[in-house]
Amino acid sequence: MHCVNFDMLEENRMKRLVTIAFVVAFSLGTVLAQQRTFVGKIGDSQCGLKHPMGMGSDKDCTLMCVRAGGKFILADQKNNVVYQLDDQKTPEKFAGQMVKVTGTLDEKTKTIKVKSIEPAGKIPAIRAPRRRGKTRVRASRSQRIALVAPISTLTNGAASSGCWQNPAGCTGDS
Prior knowledge:
alpha+beta
């Protein structure tokens, strides 16, 4: 007959249970620790942080570049970083807008595994400090006209025809 040591079985079961609980807690902790929120503008991989002039609005440029083969990205202009987005459907409705992207970041590829995207709302603008002291004085209309076109400098008979007062009525031949 075999003797079974129940204390030893119970101890082994307890060790296994603690080990499993530790592994689950560690795995869950690392997943939750990596998930964070990123703020930036939804752009495209062809333009990166800034869209070139003359390409329309940020939204139009982004959508045009994605249709031409680019990918949606998150442009974090504050930190000067471009993040790739694994989800290429959800960002379309936020093209050219400031957003908050929640997800996990793969540091090697700079790719965010997107959990959610929502509008960032208004980002407070940085205002220039108010000027104190002297205020600027503007010249009157008559002073500006006198500075720009003194009568003695007008040519082609403009002084005698009154063109300096009404340039739209000038024909140039007096």
